[in-house]
Amino acid sequence: MKNIVLFGGGNIAQAVVEGLINADFKPDNIFYIDRNTRNQKALKKLKIKNLKKNASIKIDLFILAVKPKDAIEAYKQILNEYKDPKIVSFVAGIKSKKYIKLNQDIQFLRAMPNTSARFNLGITAIYNSSFSKNNLAKVSKLFKKIGIVMNLDNESKIDIFTGMIGSGPAYFFYLLKSYEKKLMSLCNQDKKKVNAAMVNLIKGVGFSIENNDNLDELIDAVASKKGTTEAGLKSFKSEKLDKIFEKGISAAIKRSKEISNEF
Length: 263
Ligand SMILES: NC(=O)c1ccc[n+]([C@@H]2O[C@H](COP(=O)([O-])OP(=O)(O)OC[C@H]3O[C@@H](n4cnc5c(N)ncnc54)[C@H](OP(=O)(O)O)[C@@H]3O)[C@@H](O)[C@H]2O)c1
What we know:
alpha/beta, 11 helices, about 15% strand, globular, proline biosynthesis, EC 1.5.1.2, 6-PGluconate_DH-like_C_sf
């Protein structure tokens, strides 16, 4: 995959581009199509180029990274303007068959990344609809540059990944807001200090899991009988925090399925 084009250069596209460039993918080989001036500026800063209409560049891969409401229109634009494009869709909800019915011969697959791709710590789920084996291997190799890749055997699993992994970072940012609020008053509104504390908290959690894959053991290592952690956990349990969290994830998965019927 030499030349790639991001059709839609917003949040997720920028995260993926940054991750690819960190992994030594040359900015010269990354192009974008985007109508939003704020995003155009951000993309220019990343030193990638706008793909001009009728440019004589051989494009190896298009990545569709627009909101679901814009997806079919953008997809049709690619089909109309480029010969035999290979297309990866990041778009939540909309199923492969909606795209493939517009062109039966197209090589198409769905991928669901997340914004941690920016730091090469992404998780990308891939469901292959019609890529050849050889091209699928090339796409997997590309996404391995920005984190780990999970190949799915059933398209409905993409909805689950969308709710859990695509949306995943936001759930943790949301939980951290309670920490931030308390830490800010504790640290006399020193935002730098508070951020550093939150970063270490989350990084430490990540490294702990790398060291020990048993979450109960990790909890036990922090909680002692009749101690503070135990009191906190007891309160979480009595408020059924686990069920509340699961319910939130289920709502996101449900929404992903609904989007499919809306567009
Ligand atoms: N954000 C995430 O963390 C994440 C993770 C996984 C998957 N996704 C999926 O990725 C897709 C993009 O999400 P996002 O958050 O990156 O969206 P976004 O920030 O809104 O970026 C989309 C960009 O595409 C532009 N665009 C739309 N239609 C266009 C067209 N026909 N021609 C030129 N530019 C066009 C938009 O311009 P305007 O602003 O003018 O509309 C916008 O700049 C969504 O379908 C989402 O489900 C997102």
